[in-house]
Amino acid sequence: MTSGLVTDIQRYSIHDGPGIRTLVFLKGCPLRCVWCANPETHAAGIELLFLADRCTRCGRCATVCAAGVHHVEPDCHELDRPRCAGCGGCEAECPAEALRLAGRTLSALEVVEVAARDEPFYRSSGGGLTIGGGEPTAQPEFLLAILAEARRRGLHTAVETCGLAPPELIAELARTVDVFLYDIKHLEPGPHRALTGASNEAILANVALLLECGSAVIIRMPLVAGLNDGSTELRPALRYLAELRSRWRNLLGVELLPCHRLGLAKYTQLGRTAPMQPRPHSRAELDAIEESLELAELPARLVAR
Q1: Which CATH architecture has domain 49-102?
Q2: Full-model pTM
Q3: Across-strand partners of 70?
Q4: 45-75, pLDDT tens digit by residue?
Q5: 245-273 b/e (C-beta count within 10 Å ≥ 16 → b)
Q6: Tally: H helices and E strands in the chain
Q7: What are the CA-CA distances from residue 261 to residues 134, 234, 258 (Å)?
Q8: 3-44+104-302 belongs to which CATH class?
């Protein structure tokens, strides 16, 4: 059975597709969005998070780490992160739970077996399994294996994607996925590259490909205060999506997601510096966004998490 790297499995999710869902976070992503709240999903390999405020500097992690990652003194604990092999020995040994691995190897069968535990909730709510990340298409074989096993068991499936993937893979997914939660972050190529590190050309082409294939698509737009949420960015984006909706009714709707600051601590835990600190939207800004939605000629809503 095909295996891959998973950072988390979140049961009873209500914001990631229809009904009650199990959300699986896969490792790896081709984008580096400056507002990303899940930096532990960026890299393809296993990473170590260090929660310094929990550390008692007991030194037990250093005694079990053959790679020499941990250097513990009475007043400090330093990590030589490039040495880490992701074995998990220090995580298991730490009594304060100050160390945590981001990424564990699971088979597609193991992932779906976790999701299958909540089948009664799916049946009553119209829910199912959602695969996100990171970017799930960064592990294409694993993603397809999970979808195949879910389909064999009759589970409804959704895939959260940034759309930056080969069109051949997108077309293959169109044949197996029940609904796509598709990110569009900015329409203009220059700002998109500045905000995410990549062009949006393939992203816009792939959403059109999915719609042409007849796939059910929900567009998701992360809103970053001062970057892509103003009328000069948002209203053209909504007009563009309304044009898509007028051609393809399988574009089911649009969800606007105001960014939050909940992931900032993870950058420190990974030994990185956050590229930005998203500013929470004011009530007046949210009201202006909702006014834009009222003018849009498509089903759209503001989703506050």
Answers
A1: 2-Layer Sandwich (3.30)
A2: 0.94
A3: 79
A4: 999 999 999 999 999 999 999 999 999 999 9
A5: beebebbbebbbbbbeeebeebbbbbeee
A6: 11, 13
A7: 17, 21, 10
A8: alpha beta
